[in-house]
Amino acid sequence: MVNNMYYGVSYYPEHKTKEELTHDMNLLKESGINTVRMGEFAWCRFEPIEGEYYFEWLDEVVEELGKCGIKTIVCTPTACPPAWLVEKHPDLLYMDNRGIRRPFGGRRHYCYNHKAYREYSRRIAEEIGKHYGQNPYVAGFQLDNEPAQEGTGRCTCPVCREKFRNWLMVKYKTIEAFNQRSGGIFWSQEYNSFQQINPPVNTIEVGAMQSINAFYENPTIRLEFERFSSDSQIEYQDIQTEILRAYTALPITTNGTGLATNSIDYYKSTKALSNYAFDYYPGLRNQAVDSFPYAFARGVKEGAPFWVLEFMSGGGHRLSGSGRLQPNPGALKQAVMQSFAHGADMMLHFQFRSFPIGAEQLNYAIVDLDGVPRRRYFEMKDTAQELKQLEKLGAAEFRNQAAICFDYDTHWALRIKPVNDPVYHYLNYCTAFYQRLSEAGVNADVISLEQNFNKYKLLILPSAFLLDKKYRKKLKDYVKHGGILIATFLTSVKNEDNVGYTETLPAGLTDLFGVSVEEVEPVFDRNKTSVRLTTKAGYKDSADSMWSELLAATEDKTALFMASYLEDYKTGAGVFSKNAYGEGFAYYLGTELDKETMRDFLTEVCTEHGLFKNPITAKGAGEGLEVVHRTYEGKDLYYIFNFSGKELKIDCPGCYRDCVSKEKITDSCVIERSGYRVLLTE
């Protein structure tokens, strides 16, 4: 982690009159922030006529702010191609799964595979790189804006159809191989050539409409189109990355939206980027801020700090027509500090001043339409001061001993063929494990299947539905050499082609877990069944949920059943198991139990295997307390966040120094509602 923190806002000087600009610049300079992000939607100002580039309108702002210590993130404006470009190349318009072209008049109305559009994007990125690449007041570059947002991540235009066919041909080599691996014989879907293959009619694009109801397509083609679309977005992005690198050594990134909202594989998309960055709009009114996206952000590009390029600012209107609640007093600062605690070194609110114009008019911001600084502005000002005070702590290390695997192929496969939808969602299930570990005092990272497992004592593998054979060996090696693995129902059901394994489930892993899956079914209200979990503290009765797998011991009978069914024909059938394998242990969970029971189970596993647990607790906090542990200069550093909605008395055994108030803390302290503490061991 680097030893600084960039904090600020998104700002849009191209919208302002001279008087508004003067007014806003004064407020920005007085606020104490050190970063602004500008330019992402201003192609028509950068290049109002083809080949004629104008930067003066932005230069004045960059220079004035820069001289006052506020640096700029300059964005390439390719999310909004101008009217002249669309008029000249109407075939570059995005085509959705229904074959409908997206007309000029919104944003992201382009095909990312279109050759001409890629060339125009390269040109504008090059001009921006030439102009700002060495500017001392620029801190970095953002490419485009929110790739694939608002249903623009799976273009099916003629360009994309042809490119998809070629992509399949490169991967499978022969149509015979594709037919065999995809199971094309089903419903007579074998092809004579790749030219006969089209993008799927159905889509998992957020907010999209299916054009044909009850049209069931080949799962392999559907998954391959997700992979192809992700690869295409990355390829388009990297054209701009490469050209900017010729003109600057400054960081280059783009802003994702959620871990899986837009089906871009961020593990792959960040490889050519300086760091991972994303936009995050959590609720800040009487609720905890989920830190799972931050844990993912730390792991998606190992060794690089992450940025939050758009973050919640205030309440009011929203693009979709609903609204966002105002933050509780103190919650804005608390949320920024939480991001910093989890490893962010850039945090920019969207936005500085509400828009009076356009589709996002009346939107949430730090300052309202009238430009009068109020509560949110002054809280941002306080936050900027506190970040300066804590900036050196950005160098603190994470030494988490637990990790959760999140996998894009599994996410896509379970969206294409859902399991007990909407009760079970893969991303939510991964998040639930993270939160339960946190409540048990164990901080976790989020990693890919490609990353190094051996850094961690405990690895959690939630529903690894699609599991390539190479990862089976990797998991076995991890446990054999002393690792602790917890896997769950829906593990190793399909291969990399999105085709079901014909082996006994969990396919290829029955020796690792010492169990086989005998029967499976979704769990609805009408078939919930009692389960008894046995721990060292005794037993707890619960009921299954989401999914049920009946487990049987393999022939060697090495597995210990920790939970079994108590009723109906399932009575006595195992559902949680533990198996010694080499120097480690492998647990298999055949269902989901209630929150408290799952938390107790994880607590016991972590205690038994000696994982570090945060010593800081609070009675009555429920799920409203988060403790983030890091180490700074050999000392334990704890960020403690109170999301409970009330004042909390915190038990913190030992002696600490509060890094904000400088007071000495011994054994306990109080944290106000929407407050936090930063404690360093004495």
TrEMBL record:
Entry superkingdom: Bacteria
Pfam families reported for this sequence: Glyco_hydro_42, Glyco_hydro_42C, Glyco_hydro_42M
EC number: 3.2.1.23
Catalytic activity: Hydrolysis of terminal non-reducing beta-D-galactose residues in beta-D-galactosides
InterPro entries referenced in this protein's UniProt entry, alphabetically: Beta_galactosidase_C, Beta_galactosidase_Trimer, Class_I_gatase-like, GH, Glyco_hydro_42, Glyco_hydro_42_N, Glyco_hydro_b
Top-level EC class: hydrolase
Keywords tagged on the record: Glycosidase, Hydrolase, Metal-binding, Zinc
Family matches, as CDD domains: A4_beta-galactosidase_middle_domain
Cellular-component GO terms for this entry: beta-galactosidase complex
GO-annotated molecular function: beta-galactosidase activity; metal ion binding
Protein's GO biological process: galactose metabolic process
Family named by the database record: Belongs to the glycosyl hydrolase 42 family.
Record protein name field: Beta-galactosidase
